[in-house]
Amino acid sequence: MGVRKIGLIAFSVVAVVLGSLQIGSKPANAEAAGEGTVDLRLMETTDIHVHLANYDYYQDKETNEFGLAMTATLIKQARSQVNNSMLFDNGDLIQGNPLGDYIAQKGLAEGEVHPVYKAMNLLDYDAGNIGNHEFNYGIDYLKEAINDANFPYVNANVYYDDGDDDPTNDQPFFEPYKILPKQVVDANGNSHTIQVGVIGFVPPQIMQWDKANLEGEVITKDIYETAQKYIPEMKKQGADIIVAVPHSGLGSVELKEREENATYNLTEIEGIDAILFGHAHEVFPGDTFKGIPGVDLEKGTINGVPSVEAGFWGNHLGIIDLKLQKNGDSWEVIDSRAKVQAIYDDNTGEALVEPDQEILDAISDDHQATLDYIRSEVGETTAPIYSYFALVKDDPSVQIVSDAQKWYTEQAVQGTEYEGLPILSAAAPFKAGGRGGAGYYTYIPEGPIAIKNVADLYVYPNTLEVVKLNGKQVREWLEMAAGQFNQIDSNASEEQALVNDDFPTYNFDVIDGVTYQIDVTEPTRYSRNGELIHPDSHRIVNLQYNGQPVVDEQEFLVATNNYRASGGGNFPNIDGSQIVLSPQAENRQVVIDYIQQNGTIDPSADDNWSFAPISGNPLLTFQSSPDARQFIQENENITYQGIGTDGFARYKIDLSEAKEKVSLSSIKQDITDYEHSGDIDHPLARTLINKLNQAEHQLNKGHNDQAVKKMEGFLKHLNNKAMAKFITQEAKESLNHSVEVLLEDWSSN
């Protein structure tokens, strides 16, 4: 294990002879010659996303959990431990937090150095790769930004769009690879030059995710096929060893065309000697990857190739230690070990290193300018806004974004051919734990709202797009989003996790403007990749618009973002061809404008979605922040269960009670819906609501007995024979049942 062929020796022979060697040992021929054995350390940072200082701009406070200033300390320590080392970055550098947005909004003047490179140039990187988020601000901005780097950039699978259908004449947009002459010292102090080839890749899906910025400018090609093309060429050009730097997660064991996460496939290509991967915000080696064929977590290899993925935001440094043996004119990797080093202890909450002051000093002006920017107020909120329960109930942090998108779209369609079509709005909880960790939630206290808070609500620099869909397509959109949940066995007695933690929370779209329920006892209709895997399953039930069932041929406009509208997330029926309006307004700016227009906002959710009630009483749990405990509402179906894993807390949710959850407000809403649908005539509806208002008045005064009497009067009026001609039997039975449940609840409390 850990042995790869380099030069002329067959892989199988090397594996047999050298498979048992450990880092630090020397083969016999090296002992005899006294030279030619070199230890080379490769280090990786990835997915920094402009987190340079150890500072959380959303919460406006220092943090121990991330920041390149912290990673820099690890880099310097790791470098000092060895004679030979190289440092690489995997990409997703210039976008990802308010500092990145601030610099992009003001622009980079000619000669001005982006703060990312003010920091990174101090750390002597050897090369960098391009990540997918590098394209978020456009190609011109990307070129201007990376022009400041004192190290080369590589990317092999992005090409100029030459407008023809001949792939043989396509020209690379970036330099596909570099061969870096690395001066090294062997075990006996002798100097050598090793030609280190480095090649980079980015997900081909950037053409969907950043279509507006890239269409007509570039094209992308398959990562695996591109590697097959260039690796032999790099060997011919003199590369002694080849380091692949794919901005791509591990992915599937099976080979798939244009795979987003293709690292596993790259390990099967002869000639790649080490892989520094990223994009998925995961840590390799790590327990997440346990049990995958070909993965050796102790050695840190995948199919024998030493590999590392260094988390995100600088929270880890990736390290691969290679032992190289000279064999004639070539070099062989005779052993390896990969590991990650953390800057923060998840268990104790303590920093493991101090931030590097040189890095902090280099970016101090940009950091302060960002603080001034994010502290600008735009409005007020009448209650706290948080996303702690965004995956288990309709959520105010998502609601505000959705309301803002709908508000903007209503104005944008005026005077167009689409004016008058029903407008829906799709938004997702971007910060809801998951792979971001137990601290990755939105929290905005009651009171003033500043730009930092809006950035906390909407963390990506997406632009608003409007798609035109029919009712069937809207339903399938929601079916895909419902993959956020595991399938629940209503008859099981053991604990069941409700939330599928492998499903990205940014793909859990809530569509406002319609009402619906999610039946989690059904299997998910689509896989995470958008494949229809259970054609007979339908999790989305009771989908309605204005109280009426949504039919397949109904037409809707749906406000969303450019990522989703262009096919991001592999949602069915959404590939960019449905876009009808592209106002080029940033979603975050739309939220700012909406708050400024209203001045003061009420962050309550409209409860347009819920879980379908589950028969039986299964024990369903989910994880959220420990801070969520203080926000559990009285009589809510969520209860705190104790400490969870990785800093999370455990919560129980009782979906069996959902069907019995009745309030005066819900009964009022039912009556209003029945009035709109024609099931109750207007005069009767007004009378019934007035009686509910009277009961509510008595309840607010603490006169519970009087409130009960008012509800008994409600029932008497509802069931008066003379009223039968003003209400359908179905509506009457439903309201009777609701009031009975409510009165029973009052009596038990």
UniProtKB/TrEMBL annotation:
It is found in: Cell envelope. Its cofactor is a divalent metal cation. InterPro entries: 5'-Nucleotdase_C, 5'-Nucleotdase_C_sf, 5'-Nucleotdase_CS, 5_nucleotidase/apyrase, Calcineurin-like_PHP, CpdB_N, FIMAH_dom, Metallo-depent_PP-like. It holds the Pfam family 5_nucleotid_C. Gene3D superfamilies: 3.60.21.10, 5'-Nucleotidase, C-terminal domain. The keyword Oxidoreductase does not apply. Residues 379-572 form the 5'-Nucleotidase C-terminal domain. Keywords: Hydrolase, Metal-binding, Multifunctional enzyme, Nucleotide-binding, Signal. Residues 665-744 form the FIMAH domain. Residues 41-282 form the Calcineurin-like phosphoesterase domain. It catalyses: a nucleoside 2',3'-cyclic phosphate + H2O = a nucleoside 3'-phosphate + H(+); a ribonucleoside 3'-phosphate + H2O = a ribonucleoside + phosphate. PANTHER family: 2',3'-CYCLIC-NUCLEOTIDE 2'-PHOSPHODIESTERASE_3'-NUCLEOTIDASE (PTHR11575:SF6), 5'-NUCLEOTIDASE-RELATED (PTHR11575). Belongs to the 5'-nucleotidase family. NCBIfam families: PRK09420.1. This is Bifunctional 2',3'-cyclic-nucleotide 2'-phosphodiesterase/3'-nucleotidase. It comes from Tigheibacillus jepli.
